[in-house]
Design brief:
125 residues; Aldehyde Dehydrogenase, Chain A, domain 2; three-stranded parallel β-sheet; 20% helix
């Protein structure tokens, strides 16, 4: 949608890519393929949750493999990215760090996860 169709639409700026709005606001960027998408996510993303919508299986698998985020989804809503949806019970916090332990550290504390979600258009009500 362009600003000629809706006066509330304004061009996104680089600051938009660095902003978490916590509101019903979209900042949209058109990229030239999956390589540019992954580069954009690497530069501006939080490394928490990222998703792609595609019918191309090879592109989907490349996105899953190359995006360095805790949760990477294909054809499913990012609203699934919470502890309850992953069967962890009530979520008490989130972390985008890869290894955040403090105090005594054993093998379990040095474990990090990357969840891969393959969907077919699921959304969360």
């Amino acid at each position: 949608m362009s600003s000629s169709l809706d006066g509330a639409v304004t061009p996104a700026t680089e600051q938009d890519w660095r902003t978490e709005y916590l509101d019903a606001i979209l900042a949209i960027r058109v990229v030239d393929g999956v390589e540019d998408a992954v580069a954009h996510i690497e530069r501006f993303g939080s490394h928490h949750t990222d998703a792609i919508v595609t019918e191309d299986h090879a592109v989907a698998e490349r996105f899953l493999r190359e995006v360095d985020s805790a949760i990477v989804l294909v054809n499913a809503s990012t609203q699934f990215a919470d502890g309850g949806e992953f069967g962890m019970g009530a979520e008490i916090g989130i972390s985008t760090q890869r290894l955040p332990p403090r105090g005594p550290v054993g093998a379990a504390e040095l474990t990090t996860y990357k969840y891969l979600v393959r969907g077919s258009g699921q959304v969360r009500p």
